[in-house]
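The pair is set out directly below:
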Amino acid sequence: MIIKALCIFASILGLAIAASAQTTSAKSMSLQLGDKVIILPSPAGFEEAASQFEDIKRRMTATEAPENDMLAVHMLKEDCAILRKGESTSLTFYTKVSIRKANRTTVKTEKDFGELVAVFRKDGTNILDPNSPRMKAIVERLDKAVAELYNSDAKLELTQPVNLGEMDTRPNVYSVLLLLNISSEVNGTRRDTPILGGLSFVRVKERLLYVYTYRHYTSKSDIDVLREFTKTWIGDILAAN
């Protein structure tokens, strides 16, 4: 389970995205997961984007692990405003929430969650080795997904993620902060993008959500920004449920 959740982290792509559809974003959304309804509030200053922009939904879904369901994508309000004008923007700060398809109706107990945290603390640093057969297969799948999105050849290279430590270890929450560099080549143009990623396992109403927060890394201050943002938003999610 942990490996499958972490694999989504490899799907971070700093892509320029143009809008193709639009609606008005709500401040929160309801997720029906089996017999549980989970309220997912938008982070302060963000809007849920997958429900507004079909191109966002299509691209984020294309890079999702096949055994998972993407539930939401949040983007900065100013980025959404740009997309509503029909212009393109690069995503430098955004979020994604997913769940394993098999877990939509599966009860996760406190014991289950504790075991998950224990396994991650033991094996997490080695799970995303870019030279492992599993990660090579994931990168190959992402290459194919990006190539289909752009109708061109695409190549991705990942560095070994650096674990910058635990961010949040409240009951029903386990978050770590990771840093890696993604090199992408699309239509002959190469881009190197250092990415900070908050990977959070959040147990809400006996369901296990994967909460991802992403920010392009430009200075050390980005670490503090993403850490505080992630803790605050997860606190809002817990409070709403």
